Each structure stands twice: as structure tokens, then as C-alpha cells.
């Protein structure tokens, strides 16, 4: 594949090539009114990155054992599957949709993965079937939303329960143990120069998503449809295809994330994800600066959002505080992000 | 510049001298040291007891100037004295204290709150710790009464008409003891009667010693209401004239900087073979089938009233809607069953009437908007090479003379005329066979109109077939080689250019009396002129 102009995306998903949307502008001087605030509202990814760094410094100082290399690796490993799922939902949000079924897709895919593995013993085959399950699931969501014109919110709420029920039926309500497999175990334990495979995989996925969104006809179309599907359609973009593809990508990525998570826990169970996962995934995207109204959002932002969430979760565990606090913090985080998003839209004059 | 000493310094309410305002780059920083300025040298002096009209084409900087005067934007050069005091950078709330009230085209009222609540929003009267509702209501009613109108102070604002809402804004301004009233195209959405009433009110406020700045597109209003008129062109003041000592021609000349013929004259051409043909084409739900032809190199106009079915016809031709029956032929080939995407690829171009919602994608850069039709062809495989996209956009921006600092600028930062050029420009990357343009000059100012006319001619000269829907009769007569007139969904006549007069077109546009046409709209909107009118051709 020729990818001219695309920066090599590094291993760790933290900064992965750090793509700035704006090219350097020629000789401009600083505005008199609030330079920093303006910078941040134009390029919120910088602010997010700063926030993450501040959190890490604070956590390293105040949270026992947070700063150890092993714990950092752990945080990143935990962030890897969340990042992948959140990049998936980024596509759905960019095109102006929403997908609540992510968490149930996790459970379904993990059960399918382990079941096929038990039956055939072939990891590549199980992987293919698991990913295909996710993509087909997303296609169904997309078709219902686009052609049957059921609002995405309702469609995916319904498909959440359907996926959950199917997973229950396949697993007959019990936990399925993953048969030992070198490849699969390797995915969770192995590393490349100290970077866990899972993190490397998330980085590769992020790089690919970044190229697609920023340097492909499809990615541009996604953003165009998200901002204004009427104009996009009248300009010759196949709006239905784009919308359905985004739902398929969203669930496909959720499936990959589910495989990554399954490799960490080594079991297949319908409750692998659940509403918590749906919520975390959307939160990661929104904290990362993705608009819920379509059109705006970046891969890098979403990844930083995922790492922020995992940092908070990890710190709460290490501090031995009640896990209930985690939920509250998540809630606070998503509300704050939405307020910032709304303020920013106004500030940028994007309303009209 | 210091304010003029001596002569009536006290009565000068506002004195803006050589105001400069920079354009902003994509990251919101002012761009200094270039020649792209929103305001390059704008001057305006407002005295107590005058109505001062501010005119200029779209994009001349009128709105920017009143935003600066009203304190919504800082300025970067020149000086601004308010009541003799120099004002630097400022904010809206401080401007309220300065006694300036700006009444924007889009009102700043909270729709669910009542008239009283709106008038005291943010500066509620209190008695002790509680709101003094009675006193507020009393004062509000009084302020409304002084306007000589009857508006229920307890009515939620959303129940009021546009004109009434405007009056509430004015009442609020008076109630705040504003001495300077700035009105941004206040008559754009008013009926004739309401306009008269507004003018009556402005005359009274003038007599009370207020200074009023009145932004308008309509020159006849300048002569009706104003004492002086200031003209802006490309961000520069081109003069302040006493209204009683000037005339329309002089103002127009200062607005456009050259003398424009009142009507554009299209060159004679010889049309080629038939590019577009419809045979008994029936849009869904339309009352009658339509058969028309457009040849290469030809500009064909479609005239008609709002609701005559012109937009519906255009949409069916390009495939945006399905046809009920009949067929569409492109270059002799039946494309009726083709989806829109395929028709566009085959050589159709469509510029819809509602520019902001359908023609452009406002938050996206000019570059993306122009290249949107070409993305699949801008790189190896599915990729889009940014430099090819930028090169394409840059050459189109040059070709269309779009006024912008950078192709990365979002389209919402452009003036209406420039936005329209973007909406058309995306179809110029490759030559198309048939251009369907729905109200291409609506809401576009005089000189941008001329540029669009030239563009249409250029398209026709290159062998394109242009089908142009327009409600502007002089325009359709001067631009079209042939004109179809639509009435209640059907073609009521076909007129050659030589035979077209406004009279003859209007006659075939208006529905026959009687014959069950009671519901057909009888409103000619040939007078459109005012920009951004939201009414759909539905």
C-alpha cells in the first residue's frame, strides 16, 4: 500500500505520529485575546495531552506504585482494547450516529471466539469468524438505521439486547474457558521491545484509522456526511453506503477489541462488556473531543481519552477506594466533556 | 486622530476613524501585515438626532463594522470614540453601559421567556432579595407604550411576530437608556406596513435625540429614512453623503466602484445538439408532466412563482428525487432509472437553491467543499493526496475569484456570494454536460451576481447546457436564450429571448382565476432581493 505523506505511526498509541490537522500557518502573530484558550479551542488535542500528562505526574506522586514501568505498561494494555473500540465508535459518531450496542458485541464476539476455538482449535479461523460476527452485526445496525430509518439510539439499544441474548444462547449461560493456544496467549503476554503486543496492535489500528480518516476519499466523505448529509448527497457522495460502513467499522472494531480483552481474561462470557463498556467507549470518544452531532473528532484525541479513563480507573484501584467512585468520575468526565464541546462549538461559531 | 475639536463635539455620539480589522486565520489569530483585511479603513461618525444609513455590497464589511461599533469584536487599527471617550478592546456588557444597543438581524431574545423577562434579562430589578416583578412589568409596559404599539408584556416572545420581537428589542434598548441604536438590516423580514411603522418609530426616536445607525440593502429605504449615508466597499469607506444631496446612482457607484449597466447583456451564441431532454417527466405528486430540452451552449431559464414546481422538477432531473413517470435523457441516453450519484458522474451538476443547507458544508474548509466531487480521483486508489486536493482547490479559487485568505478557511467565514461560488465551483473541476442551477443568485449582491453571470456564460461557451431557475425576472430575461414558464406544476409557455418581457412572463406565471386554483400561491417573489430568505420552493 502506498501511503505517501503519512507519518509512520509509532508503537505506543499515546502520540502515534501526532497528526495535527492544521499545517503550519505562515507568519502569524499572537492574538491579544486569550492566546492559550484560543489555541486550546482550535486544537483541543494539545489540551488533552497536557491534561493526561498532568494526571500522570499527579498519579506518579500521589498514587502508590502508579509510576512503575510495569503499572504504566498495564495501564496502556488496559487502554488498548478500549482505544480500538473507541476508534470504532469514532467512525459512528463522525457520521452522525451513535452505537449503544458495543458492550453486547463484546460479549457476543468473545463467546463466538471461544466457541469456534473449542470446536476447531484454529485460532486464525476463530479470529476471522469473531471479526466477521462483529462486522455483520454492525451491518445490520447500519441497515436498520439507514434504510429502515429507525433512530440509531433505539436500533442499537435493541441490538444490544439481541446480541446479549444470542451470546447467552451460544454459551448456554456459562463461562467458556479458552483452550490453550500459543498465538492467543502470546497476544496477551508478548511484547515488542518492552511494548505489549496489545498496545502495538492498538497503535497499528490507530495508524490505519488515521490514514483512512485523514487521507482517503472514504474518510473525507464520512466527515462531510457527518456535518451535512444533504449537501454530501447532492454532491455525489453515497450517503447510505458511508453510514452503513461506519456502523460496520464500529462493530468490527468492537469485535477486535473484544478479542483483545478476551486474550487478557482467557474466557468467553456474554457479560464480558455490558453497558459499562458501551459507556466507557463513548466516554473515551467524547472526552477525546468527538462531537456527538457528527463531523468532528480525531483518532489521537480518542486514544488520549481512552488512556485518561484507564488512568483514572487504575488510580482508583491502586488507592483502594470504593469502585463506585469510578462510575461517578466517569459520569462527571462525560458531562464535563459535553459542556466543553458545546462551549467550543459556540466559540468557533460553528452553530449556523 | 483626535475628535474634531470645537464644532459640536458633544453631539457626536460615535466617531470611528480609519478602523482596521484583520481577517483571522484557521487558528483564530488575526493575520497582520497582509492586504486581506475585513476592514481596511472604515470611518463613521454618528451624531445625536440623526439616522445614519450604512450601505455596501455583501462582504463589504458592514456587519463587521457594526460588530466593532457594538463591541462584539475588538478592532486592530484606527480609533473609536464613544461619547468622546476612546474605547479600546471591550466586551458586550461594557458596551451596554456605554449606551449602545445593537439589534441584530437574528434577535437575541430568549424565545420561551416573556417580554418582560426578556427586557430585564441579566439586569433584573430587585426588592430586597426577591425579584421586583411588578415594577419590571410596569416599566416594561411603559416602554412598550412609548413605542405606540400594543404588545402583551406577559406573552412569551416566541408567540410574537418578527416585527413585534424587533419592537421588544427596541423597547429594551430604550429601557436601558441607550443613546445609540444600531439596526442590522431591520427591514429584511418585515412587511411593507411593518416597515412603515418602524420608520415612524425611528423618526420619533431621532427627534428625541438618539443616534441611529441603519444597515440596509435597499437603497430606497436610505432615501426614506436617513439623514446621512455612509458607503463601504471592500472594507473601506468610500464616503459619507447627505442623503438630501445625493441620488441612487451616486451611491451605487460608490458601492461598486464602477458604473454597472442596469441589466447584464448575454452574448449571442449558437446552441449545439440537445444535451438534456425530459419527456413527460412527472415529479412525484406533481399535477402535470413536463417536457423540456436544453442544448449545449444554451442557457435556458425557468420562471414561475414560488410553489410552481420548479425546484421539484430540478431535483427529479438530477436524480435527487424519483420520478413518478416519464423520462430524463442525457445526451440522448435514458438515465431515468439511474441513481443520483451515477447521473452526476455521467455529467450532471446541481446547485440547489438553499445554499447554506444544501450547497455547501459550512464548517468544512473551502478546499474540502470544492474538492468533494473529485475525491475519488485525487489519489492512488482510495487515498486522497492532500497536495492534489489543495492544488485543485487553489486553481478553482483563482478561476472563480473567491475572496479568501486561504483554502483552509471554513466556508462559513465567507460572504454569501463567495459561498455560492464555492457551491458552483465544485462542479467546475471537470466539465459537466448539464448544469442545473436553482436560484443561483438569490441573496447575492450586485457585483457577485455579475461574476456569477459571467461564470454561467463561460460554462455555456465551453459547451455546457445550463438550466437556470430564477425568480428574478430581469435576470432571467437577460441571461436566458430561451425561457420556460411554469405554472402549477406545468409548463405554461415557452418564450424566446426576443419575445420575453416581464409583462408577458408574469402573465403566464399567474394562475388562471377560477379553475380550482384557489390554493395556488399568488405571490410573485420576483422582488426577492433581500438575501437569505428562508422560504423553500415547496
Note the topology:
The complex is a heterodimer of chains A (352) and B (538).
Chain A: H1 35-42, H2 44-62, H3 69-94, H4 102-120, H5 123-146, H6 152-171, E1 176-177, H7 182-189, E2 191-192, E3 195-196, H8 197-215, H9 217-227, H10 229-234, H11 239-265, E4 267-268, H12 274-287, H13 299-319, H14 324-347
Antiparallel strand pairs in A: 1-4, 2-3
Chain B: E1 12-22, E2 37-47, E3 50-55, H1 62-69, E4 77-82, E5 85-86, H2 92-98, E6 100-103, H3 115-119, E7 126-127, E8 130-131, H4 133-146, H5 162-175, E9 180-184, H6 192-207, E10 211-215, H7 219-225, E11 228-233, E12 236-242, H8 248-256, E13 274-283, E14 290-295, E15 299-304, H9 310-318, E16 323-330, E17 333-334, H10 340-346, E18 348-351, H11 355-359, H12 366-371, H13 386-399, H14 416-425, E19 434-438, H15 446-461, E20 465-469, H16 473-479, E21 482-487, E22 490-496, H17 502-509
Parallel strand pairs in B: 3-10, 3-11, 6-9, 9-10, 15-20, 15-21, 18-19, 19-20
Antiparallel strand pairs in B: 1-2, 1-4, 4-5, 7-8, 11-12, 13-14, 13-16, 16-17, 21-22
Helix pairs in contact in B: 4-5
Q: In a few lines, what is going on in this structure?
A:
The complex is a heterodimer of chains A (352) and B (538). Chain A has 14 helices and four strands. With 352 residues, chain A is mainly alpha-helical.
Describe the structure.
The complex is a heterodimer of chains A (352) and B (538). Chain A is an all-alpha fold and 352 residues long. Chain A has helices at 35-42, 44-62, 69-94, 102-120, 123-146, 152-171, 182-189, 197-215, 217-227, 229-234, 239-265, 274-287, 299-319, 324-347; strands at 176-177, 191-192, 195-196, 267-268. Chain A has a two-stranded antiparallel ribbon with strand order 1-4. In chain A, strands 2-3 form a two-stranded antiparallel sheet. Chain A starts with 34 loop residues before the first helix and ends in a 5-residue tail after the last helix. Mean pLDDT of chain A is 84; it is low at 1-33. By secondary structure, chain B is α/β, with parallel strands linked by helices. In chain B, 30% of the residues lie in helices and 23% in strands. Chain B contains 17 helices and 22 strands. Chain B has helices spanning 62-69, 92-98, 115-119, 133-146, 162-175, 192-207, 219-225, 248-256, 310-318, 340-346, 355-359, 366-371, 386-399, 416-425, 446-461, 473-479, 502-509, and strands spanning 12-22, 37-47, 50-55, 77-82, 85-86, 100-103, 126-127, 130-131, 180-184, 211-215, 228-233, 236-242, 274-283, 290-295, 299-304, 323-330, 333-334, 348-351, 434-438, 465-469, 482-487, 490-496. In chain B, the strands form 5 sheets. Chain B has a 6-stranded mixed sheet, with helices on both faces. In chain B, strands 18-19-20-15-21-22 form a 6-stranded mixed sheet, sandwiched between helices. A 4-stranded antiparallel sheet of chain B has the order 2-1-4-5, with helices on one face. In chain B, helix 4 (133-146) packs across helix 5 (162-175). Chain B is globular, with a radius of gyration of 26 Å. The termini of chain B are far apart. Mean pLDDT of chain B is 82; it is low at 1-7 and 513-538. Classes of the chains: A mainly alpha (352), B alpha/beta (538). At the A-B interface, helix 1, helix 9 and helix 10 of A face helix 10 and helix 11 of B.
Amino acid at each position: 500500500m502506498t501511503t505517501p505523506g503519512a507519518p509512520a505511526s509509532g508503537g505506543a498509541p499515546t502520540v502515534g505520529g501526532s497528526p495535527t490537522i492544521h499545517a503550519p500557518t505562515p507568519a502569524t502573530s499572537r492574538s491579544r485575546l486569550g492566546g492559550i484558550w484560543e489555541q486550546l479551542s482550535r486544537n483541543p488535542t494539545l489540551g488533552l495531552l497536557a491534561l493526561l500528562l498532568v494526571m500522570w505526574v499527579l498519579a506518579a506522586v500521589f498514587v502508590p506504585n502508579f509510576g512503575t514501568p510495569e503499572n504504566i505498561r498495564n495501564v496502556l494494555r488496559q487502554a488498548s482494547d478500549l482505544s480500538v473500540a473507541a476508534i470504532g465508535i469514532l467512525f459512528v459518531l463522525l457520521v452522525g450516529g451513535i452505537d449503544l450496542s458495543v458492550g453486547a458485541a463484546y460479549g457476543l464476539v468473545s463467546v463466538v471466539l471461544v466457541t469456534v476455538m473449542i470446536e476447531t482449535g484454529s485460532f486464525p479461523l476463530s479470529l476471522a469468524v469473531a471479526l466477521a460476527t462483529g462486522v455483520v452485526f454492525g451491518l445490520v445496525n447500519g441497515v436498520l438505521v439507514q434504510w429502515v430509518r429507525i433512530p440509531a439510539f433505539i436500533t442499537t439499544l435493541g441490538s444490544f439486547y439481541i446480541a446479549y441474548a444470542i451470546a447467552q444462547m451460544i454459551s448456554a449461560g456459562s463461562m467458556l474457558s479458552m483452550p490453550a493456544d500459543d498465538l492467543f496467549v502470546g497476544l496477551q503476554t508478548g511484547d515488542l521491545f518492552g511494548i505489549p503486543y496489545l498496545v502495538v496492535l492498538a497503535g497499528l489500528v490507530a495508524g490505519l484509522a488515521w490514514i483512512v480518516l485523514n487521507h482517503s476519499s472514504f474518510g473525507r466523505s464520512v466527515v462531510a456526511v457527518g456535518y451535512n448529509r444533504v449537501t454530501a448527497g447532492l454532491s455525489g457522495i453515497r450517503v447510505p453506503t458511508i453510514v452503513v460502513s461506519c456502523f460496520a467499522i464500529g462493530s468490527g472494531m468492537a469485535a477486535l477489541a473484544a478479542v483483545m480483552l478476551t486474550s487478557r481474561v482467557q474466557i468467553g462470557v456474554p457479560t464480558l462488556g455490558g453497558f459499562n463498556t458501551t459507556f466507557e467507549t463513548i466516554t473515551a470518544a467524547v472526552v477525546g473531543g468527538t462531537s456527538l452531532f457528527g463531523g468532528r473528532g480525531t483518532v489521537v484525541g480518542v486514544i488520549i481519552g481512552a488512556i485518561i479513563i484507564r488512568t483514572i480507573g487504575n488510580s482508583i484501584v491502586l488507592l483502594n477506594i470504593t469502585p463506585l467512585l469510578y462510575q461517578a468520575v466517569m459520569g462527571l468526565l462525560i458531562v464535563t466533556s459535553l459542556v466543553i464541546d458545546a462551549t467550543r462549538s459556540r466559540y468557533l461559531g460553528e452553530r449556523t | 486622530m483626535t475628535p474634531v475639536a470645537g464644532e459640536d463635539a458633544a453631539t457626536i455620539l460615535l466617531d470611528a476613524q480609519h478602523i482596521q480589522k484583520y481577517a483571522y486565520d484557521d487558528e483564530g489569530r488575526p493575520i497582520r501585515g497582509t492586504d486581506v483585511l475585513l476592514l481596511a479603513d472604515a470611518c463613521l461618525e454618528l451624531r445625536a438626532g440623526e439616522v445614519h444609513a450604512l450601505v455596501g455590497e455583501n462582504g463589504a464589511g458592514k456587519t463587521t463594522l457594526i460588530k466593532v461599533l457594538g463591541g462584539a469584536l475588538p478592532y486592530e487599527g484606527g480609533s473609536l470614540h464613544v461619547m468622546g471617550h476612546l474605547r479600546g478592546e471591550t466586551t458586550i456588557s461594557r458596551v451596554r453601559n456605554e449606551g449602545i444597543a445593537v439589534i441584530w438581524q437574528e434577535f437575541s431574545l430568549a424565545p420561551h421567556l416573556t417580554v418582560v423577562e426578556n427586557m430585564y434579562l441579566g439586569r433584573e430589578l430587585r426588592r430586597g432579595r426577591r425579584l421586583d416583578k411588578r415594577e419590571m412589568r410596569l416599566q416594561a409596559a411603559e416602554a412598550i407604550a412609548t413605542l405606540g404599539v400594543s404588545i402583551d408584556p406577559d406573552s412569551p416572545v416566541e408567540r410574537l411576530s418578527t416585527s413585534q420581537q424587533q419592537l421588544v428589542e427596541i423597547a429594551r434598548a430604550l429601557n436601558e437608556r441607550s443613546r445609540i441604536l444600531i439596526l442590522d438590516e431591520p427591514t429584511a423580514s418585515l412587511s411593507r406596513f411593518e416597515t412603515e411603522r418602524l420608520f415612524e418609530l425611528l423618526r420619533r426616536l431621532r427627534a428625541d435625540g438618539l443616534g441611529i445607525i441603519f444597515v440596509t440593502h435597499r437603497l430606497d429605504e436610505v432615501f426614506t429614512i436617513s439623514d446621512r449615508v455612509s458607503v463601504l466597499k471592500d472594507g473601506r469607506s468610500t464616503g459619507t453623503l447627505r442623503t438630501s444631496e445625493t441620488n441612487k446612482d451616486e451611491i451605487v457607484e460608490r458601492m461598486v466602484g464602477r458604473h454597472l449597466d442596469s441589466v447584464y447583456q448575454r452574448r449571442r451564441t449558437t446552441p449545439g445538439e440537445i444535451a438534456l431532454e425530459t419527456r413527460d417527466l412527472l415529479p412525484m405528486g406533481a399535477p402535470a408532466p413536463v417536457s423540456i430540452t436544453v442544448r449545449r451552449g444554451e442557457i435556458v431559464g425557468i420562471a414561475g412563482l414560488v410553489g410552481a414546481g420548479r425546484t421539484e422538477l430540478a431535483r427529479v432531473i438530477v436524480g435527487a428525487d424519483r420520478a413518478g413517470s416519464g423520462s430524463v435523457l442525457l445526451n440522448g441516453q435514458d438515465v431515468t432509472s439511474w441513481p443520483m450519484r451515477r447521473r452526476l458522474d455521467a455529467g450532471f451538476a446541481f446547485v440547489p437553491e438553499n445554499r447554506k443547507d444544501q450547497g455547501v458544508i459550512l464548517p468544512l474548509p473551502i478546499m474540502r467543499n470544492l474538492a468533494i466531487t473529485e475525491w475519488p480521483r485525487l489519489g492512488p486508489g482510495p487515498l486522497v493526496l492532500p497536495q492534489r486536493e489543495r492544488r485543485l482547490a487553489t486553481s478553482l479559487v483563482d478561476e472563480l475569484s473567491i475572496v479568501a485568505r486561504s483554502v483552509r478557511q471554513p466556508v462559513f467565514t465567507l460572504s454569501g456570494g463567495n459561498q455560492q461560488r464555492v457551491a458552483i465551483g465544485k462542479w467546475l473541476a471537470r466539465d459537466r454536460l448539464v448544469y442545473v442551477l436553482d436560484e443561483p443568485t438569490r441573496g447575492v449582491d450586485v457585483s457577485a451576481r455579475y461574476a456569477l453571470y459571467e461564470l454561467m456564460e463561460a460554462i455555456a461557451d465551453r459547451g455546457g447546457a445550463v438550466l437556470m431557475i430564477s425568480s428574478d425576472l430581469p435576470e432571467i430575461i437577460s441571461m436566458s436564450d430561451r425561457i420556460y414558464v411554469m405554472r402549477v406544476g406545468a409548463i405554461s409557455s415557452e418564450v424566446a429571448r426576443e419575445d420575453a418581457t416581464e409583462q408577458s412572463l408574469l402573465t403566464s406565471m399567474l394562475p388562471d382565476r377560477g379553475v380550482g386554483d384557489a390554493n395556488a400561491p399568488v405571490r410573485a417573489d420576483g422582488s426577492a432581493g433581500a438575501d437569505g430568505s428562508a422560504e423553500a420552493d415547496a
